Structure formats: C-alpha cells, structure tokens
Amino acid sequence: MEGNRICQLGKDARFEGFLMVRSAERKTDKNGRDYVDLNLGDRTGEMNAKIWNWDGNQELPEAGKPVLIRGLVQEYNGRLQMRIEKWRRATPEDGAVLADLVPAAPRTGEDMMAEIRETVAGFKSAGLRALTEEMLAMAGEKLLWFPAAQRMHHAERSGLLHHTTDMLRLAKAAVQVYPWLNQDLLYAGVILHDLGKIEELKSDESGNVTDYTRDGQLLGHLVRGITLLNRAAEKTGVRGEILVLLEHMLLSHHGEAEFGSPRPPMFPEAEALHWIDMMDARMNTMKAAWEKTPEGAFSEKIFSLERRVYHPLYTEE
What we know:
Layout: E1 14-28, E2 34-42, E3 45-51, E4 66-76, E5 79-89, H1 98-101, H2 109-121, H3 126-139, H4 159-177, H5 183-192, H6 197-200, E6 201-203, E7 209-212, H7 214-218, H8 220-236, H9 241-252, H10 268-291
Helix pairs in contact: 2-4, 3-5, 3-8, 4-5, 4-10, 5-9, 5-10, 8-9, 9-10
C-alpha cells in the first residue's frame, strides 16, 4: 500500500485500506442531519474525513483503533478531506500493521531509554543523578511509548524519548563548544524538561493523543513538571540550590511568557536548554513538512512555524 499513503493522496483520489482513527465526533449539519467528523491517519500524515447521513444507533469509530475504509478525497476550503463511503472496524484477522498506521520514532523506546540511563549513570553530581533517576522511575513504562505532542513536533509513538535523546545529543555537542557549562545540570534539564507531558496529554499506547487531561488544561506540563520534581526531591532528600536551578530550567525552557514561561532563562544552562529545545522542535517540524512536500515545491503554511516550508531540489543547475 506504499502508493496509498495519506501524504500521497490528492484531490479526486480514491482510497481503500486501513487508517488509524485519531479522533471521531458526532455532529449535526445545518439541516439537522447527523454526521461524523473524523481525523484519520497513517504513519505519513493525517486527513480530515466525514461520514455523512450517520445512523445515530451506530457506535462511533474509536480513537486509537484502526478502521478499514473506502472513500473519495475531495477539497473543502482549500484543504483535502475524505468522504467515507464505507467503513468498518478492523479485526485482528485483517492483519493491519500498526507500524504502517502510526508515526513512530526512528529508534525504539528501549534503545533511547538505555541512552538516557547511560548518561545519567555518568553524572558526577549525586543529587542530580538521584533526582533524575527518581523522575524517570515516576514516569514509568509510559515513557517508552509516550508522544511529545498532539499535533506539533514529535507527535509520534515514543516521540517524547525521540525529542529528549536528540536534545541530549545536541547538548553533548554544545558542551564541546562551551566546556564551561555545567554538563550534569544541562543534561538533567534536557532529560526532565518535558516529563510533565505524561500528566498533560491523554494518549494511548499507539502514541495517539485524543485530548489534554484536566491537569494539562488547568496547569500545563511546565507547572506539573515542577510539582513532579518536588515529589522527587521529597523522596530523595535533595535540597538546596541545585533543586532551585532545575526548577527554574523546567519553568523557563519555553523562553518567554508568550509561550508559557513565567520567567525567561536566567543562567547559562537554562538558556542553552531553551535553544536546544527550540532547535530540536523546529527541525523536527521542518523535517515532517519537508518529507510530505515534493521536491521544488512549498508546503502548506505550517502553523507552529508561521510559514511555508520549501523542499529544495539540491541541484547545482
């Protein structure tokens, strides 16, 4: 089904195959008729879809589950949209392959966790090592598959670890240029900065995020990250400036109040964390847009970048 991927579908294309339900909601049109508004996806992308003339006695397609569908791709308000003609829930006997239906990190969760644990084991600071190990233990098995976002960067299975390990590699390169940085503090900040997302997002094991949790909507991962860090401090007995520095790094890593940080980064490791986070998030977003755009063409406007992305030909002609 390589030629039948979401990213390859254009207007008037017909589709028949398996897709993952990202979200499904029953709605009513202007004439009072029920329909279902869905977002369907595979590992290459996502598309809005509609099931018209919905029978209200049917159960909605379930988010996080694969469906077998037949449909026609149309265009509405300048965006592609699929009109579902026929559908049913996929069964185990159908043999739908999860790896084809959900975007996933390029490395396994286990391999990425091993990379993180090896880094933490090398910390010279016993306090930072204890805090980081406790926070990882609190995150538990969810961390192996948890995504980093619902729609933005690293919105994929194991995306949180993908984001964290790529940032860790950037941080290790940065300390070669700026060896005066406190390496343990910077690496700990990288590893811990987004763990609050596990409490912020509702995700299943496929990496599909359906919504924000109550904590996510009322507090967000920056504030929840601070409360989790303080629980870890209570359990490990770590106190003093090192804890305050880590708290500040978690609170300020978005850089500005406009993006949710109540304080800007106020010491070098916090500043480095902010820009490493920004660079990795934007490069992942760029890569996702670049992969879905033909060579020599521009993508649609990317909301988080506030611009379109060009896929260069990379020729010398």
